[in-house]
Amino acid sequence: KEYEDSLFLLVRTLKELDRHQEAVQILEKALIREEGRTPDLYILLAGIYQFIGQQEQGRKAFLRALAEYPEEEQVLYEYGLFLDYIGEQDPALEIMERIIAMNSEHAGALNYVGYTWADKKENLSKAMQYISRAAKLKPDNGYIRDSLGWLYYQQGEYEKAREALELA
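RESULT FIELD:
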């Protein structure tokens, strides 16, 4: 645990110092070692690549993680968010739906799918089920409250939308 914590601290420090390639090298070196390798290291590496605009390298980092940890919810979730960030919303949606199939109580995935449907004005009743469930799981999450507000707005329920957005 201390090794991983110190590695994260070192990588974050290098990122803050704009020494991104050093951070990448340290993570790549750490990932070669089987001992101490975790899904979080892959996620951190992909995040560094994303931050420096190397999206294809970020994708490769996630695919490596998924090859090693195919059912790891956090890797799947972060990969879905990454795909959304690079404009690949349909594959991101598929991943989030896969997470929900694995864990129907994953608030982040429920929120993502519900918001995506609300934004497209599709499956609005199911979007309400998903976002409402996410809100019950994480009642203080502003992103989820924002999604609920957007869904109410899309349904023309403006007073409910205002209330949800104020809570967000």
